[in-house]
Design goal:
Bound molecules: 2-amino-2-deoxy-6-O-phosphono-alpha-D-glucopyranose
Structural class: alpha/beta
Distance between the termini: 19 Å
Order of helices and strands: EHEHEEHEHEEHEHEHEH
Helix content: 25-40%
Largest sheet: 7 strands, parallel
Length: about 260
Amino acid sequence: MRVVIQDNYEKMCKWAADYIADKINGHKEDRPFILGLPTGSSPIGVYKELIRKNKAGEVSFKNVVTFNMDEYLGLPKDHDQSYWYFMHEYLFDHLVDMKAENINILDGMTEDPEEECRKYEEKIASYGGIDLFMGGIGVDGHLAFNEPFTSLTSRTGVRDLTTDTRIVNSRFFDNDPEKVPAQALSVGIGTVTDSKEVLVLISGHNKARALAATVEGSVSQKWTCSALQMHNGAIIACDEDACGELTVDTYKYFLDIEKKERL
Ligand code: GLP
């Protein structure tokens, strides 16, 4: 696992956007580049920078197919808290050459959630898998909506949200946890770790425990993010604020080995 520590959130986002753009630009195969994407506050700065690069002609999304991580069950696309809405507001609507037919987001209003999830896995497989999955994590270490104790080999499916997650996400729902949908559709931990590369953004003091669990903890279904330790191409991009619970030797190790990557 690589851990790239940047001074602050802005630099972390710049590093991640540069990394993604380089991967897209370096993709010379005939088939499209398959990119997994998250929602949340963490990726917003990355999306801003990708939009800037796209408008400046530094990266094209013409040959990119995206798969989003998750979607609330029961929210229509035009609900301002649906992840469909979020992705269009913060990324897709601003890219000059993203094709609508290349955007894949689980349908939160589906009448058959199991079938929707099965088809999603099938579609990912039809492209030969995901090249790079970018993610964020919750304060409890959930990756996509894979809450603590979700199997580390799980596939796309329906997830019950924990009370903790509903409380954290209630900031977008009038601070009322009851208004946060109780269930979501989400790619599984296995879906994410099947990707060739996984890039997870972890920033801020409130993610310090989760970062330590991801990097230094045991691989455990309690911290589903810890499954990344078993992945051969996992990168954590983080900021200084998130490093508060790392041991000093771990922190120094990654600063030393990644010093060329420090912006
Ligand atoms: C939600 C999403 C996750 C995301 C998490 C963290 O629960 N389902 O995919 O990683 O929020 O969000 P933030 O980046 O806002 O802390």
